[in-house]
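Exercise 3.2. Students should predict the tertiary structure of the chain below and write it as structure tokens, then compare their answer with the key that follows.

Predict this chain's 3D structure.
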Amino acid sequence: MNLVDRVLTIVITATITSAIWIVAGGSLIENATSISQREATRPAEAAPSPRASNTVGTEQNGAAEAGGLNTSAASLPDERSARDLMVPVLNVRPTDLSDTFSDSRSGGSRLHEAIDIMAPKGTSVVAAAPGEIERLFESDAGGLTIYVRSADRRTIYYYAHLDEYAEGLKEGQRVRRGQRLGAVGSTGNASPDAPHLHFAILQTTEEASWWEPANAVNPYTLFTNR
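Answer key:
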């Protein structure tokens, strides 16, 4: 092959190679552009919401705490409230009371954690302190019972074995100290031969429900140590 033929061959080869690269390069550029455009127009994936995550955590913690009393937030009745407590059975004086708080019940399986205020059946039961009637409840053990929650929601006054409720008494009703709530009786597991009021003071928290675990405070001590 002479010199002219070799030069012509090189020029033709270079021309064909350039054309291939132009076509291939253009395709690559076009593909890259299309991918970028698709990425730009694709909806972004929803990111986890911190608020949603925190809400779930709070609900789980709340459910865990509901199983027991958070005693760090609870408080005993203050000195003035304790001093103003009224013996919740009409005509019964603090000196007439007996301290049955630590007595055993159910064959020694549990403590009483309340006091029994002995009185004839039908004797008026009155509110030991002001508050709101949170629950009127009848149970096998307590019979006719009343749960009154204090204004600060940290104390529950529990009255049990009532013979009857005062006329018109209802849940959500606010009661004043000394207001008639019902009558002494023997409902529930109390002996008909020994009618009395089972009275308990329960230390709780503002958020806890009436039925949740609470710490019992000895009413006898509050009535007599003034």
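Discussion points: The chain has four helices and eleven strands. The longest strand covers residues 155-165.
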